[in-house]
Amino acid sequence: MTLQSPAKLMPWFLLASVVLFILMLGGIAQDSQQPWKSYQRDYIRRKKNSAQTPAEQRAVDHFRMGIRQIEVPELGRVDRCTTCHLAMNHPDKMDADPPLRRHPQIGPHSFEEFGCTVCHRGNGLATSVEAAHGLTPDAASPLLPTKFVNASCLACHNLNALPGVQNLKTGRQLFENNGCLTCHALNGTGGQIGPALDGIGQRREWDWFIRHFKDPASVSPGSAMPPVQLADADLELLTLYVLSFVDPVSDPYFTSKWILPNPQSGRELYFSRGCIGCHQLDNIGGSLGPDLSQLGLRGKAARLRYVLEYTLPGASMPHPDLRPDEREALIAFLLDLNQP
Ligand code: HEC
Ligand code: HEC
Ligand code: HEC
Ligand code: HEC
Ligand code: HEC
Fold first, then answer.
1. What's the pLDDT tens digit per position in 93-116?
2. Which of 6, 81, 138, 144 could tie 148 with a disulfide, CB 3.0–4.6 Å?
3. Who's near 101: CB < 8 A, 6+ residues apart?
4. Ligand 5 site, residue 317, Cβ cutoff 6 A
């Protein structure tokens, strides 16, 4: 290879610059076609048309195009859905379809605090419809169809304490009336013939459940589970309820709604958390620890709270590892036992 004079290289430099320029133009054109930009432009256009006062007009002029996101660090989520879904809290209806339609009010939750994916699933960081809604065949977290969104409420709420959500309550009735617990365990109670169903709502998709309920052997070859004899609408409600078997979120603020601090939910915990294995109640249970019905604990909530949070000095009782709401429910239960 020989060294060439700068003059001879000139045409190559020129060619390279032209190619670079064309690539750049292509890049700009592609960027302006980012799908979210078209929704933001549509939003600006609608706002412009409906702006009536100078203040509203100024608000439109100050709208900055760009990616928007809601961060919910307690739940490990960053949701960019509002990049396209811009009208969540919009005061008027805008007469638009999603993503520019105002969101229905669900309880007191604010979108700034909760984001979107905690209820809808989907992929929070993505900024194209396909990726955000998880429409590609192997997407990690497809959007739940709207009719199944209520399944997510139970990651934070106790169904007994949640007003509304009639579809979930009907789903639970179907679950209870169709013998599911004779073969399956849930929260530590039920049969052993089929696998335990805890957490199953986050391991399978809704369409898998429907297919499986109609004909278990078609998706689990050789399955010993009989087909569920229900009409399609009821199968969807059963699926909704089974989809709600997800691990509760772990942040104490968000789960503050999970367990009601009343004796009934405390009683359930007393059995499901194994207290009964070491403590007797009415002569039932283990005897490693003291009989709690005999302790005369009335009025001693503070002591109970201490025992359940830290255990006693030199204690042989294992640390119970309870969330605050669970602790309060157990205390309500134990104090109730000791009422005269
Ligand atoms: C790139 C723009 C864009 C992003 C990002 C986006 N969406 Fe959408 N979304 C749309 C459009 C467009 C529609 C209406 C058409 C459709 O359903 O595809 C829609 C519809 C929806 C619907 C209604 C579906 C129905 O069946 O009625 C829900 C729910 C939804 N989006 C949730 C989300 C969530 C949650 C996220 C974030 C994880 C998100 N979207 C991110 C553009 C977007
Ligand atoms: C507390 C749970 C919850 C949160 C958080 C939530 N949604 Fe929803 N969303 C729902 C429920 C429930 C529905 C169905 C309401 C109905 O059918 O009446 C719904 C409906 C929708 C729809 C369809 C509305 C329509 O008009 O058809 C869209 C789109 C949507 N949500 C997007 C979002 C986006 C984007 C976010 C985040 C900014 C979000 N949601 C946050 C529970 C939630
Ligand atoms: C990530 C956790 C979380 C999810 C998911 C969630 N909620 Fe909530 N919800 C809360 C918290 C926390 C409060 C209390 C908020 C407050 O007081 O400001 C609440 C309050 C409520 C309330 C007011 C009554 C009460 O018990 O305080 C209603 C109603 C409600 N939620 C309904 C729903 C519905 C319906 C869904 C599902 C579509 C849902 N929530 C999903 C955490 C959640
Ligand atoms: C006669 C016993 C029996 C009854 C009753 C029964 N199942 Fe099953 N179920 C099984 C067996 C065995 C399996 C494992 C094989 C399979 O996946 O089909 C199973 C699997 C499942 C799975 C998949 C679990 C996984 O880990 O993949 C779900 C979900 C399920 N059953 C839900 C239900 C529901 C809901 C009901 C009530 C409508 C029900 N089952 C009634 C025996 C039963
Ligand atoms: C492995 C056995 C074991 C389990 C499981 C266990 N405990 Fe205990 N518990 C003990 C023993 C032993 C003591 C006596 C003090 C000590 O050594 O810690 C005790 C003491 C206590 C006390 C204090 C009684 C007093 O002296 O005032 C309370 C309250 C209590 N347990 C409640 C519970 C609850 C509620 C659970 C379930 C979340 C539970 N325990 C689970 C063994 C157990």
1. 777 889 999 999 998 899 999 999
2. 144
3. 87, 93, 94
4. yes
Ligand 4 atom at shortest distance from the alpha carbon of 242: 35
Alpha carbon distance 306, 309 (integer Å): 5
Which protein residue's CA is at the shortest distance from atom 8 of ligand 1? 99
Its pTM stands at: 0.78
Q: In which residue are the tokens 């391991």 written?
A: 203
Looking at domain 259-337, does it have CATH number 1.10.10.10?
no
Between 313 and 288, the more confident residue is: 288
CATH 1.10.760.10 residue spans of the chain: 146-243, 259-337
Compute the distance between CA of residue 88 and CA of residue 100 in angstroms, rounded to an integer.
Answer: 8
What backbone phi and psi angles, to 5 degrees, belong to 167? -65, -35
pLDDT band at 62 (very low <50, low <70, confident <90, very high): very high
Closest-CA residue, ligand 3 atom 28, reads 107
Task: Convert the pLDDT of each residue in 234-268 to its tens digit.
Answer: 999 999 999 999 987 877 677 766 677 788 889 98
CATH architecture of 146-243: Orthogonal Bundle (1.10)
Q: Beta partners for 185?
A: 190
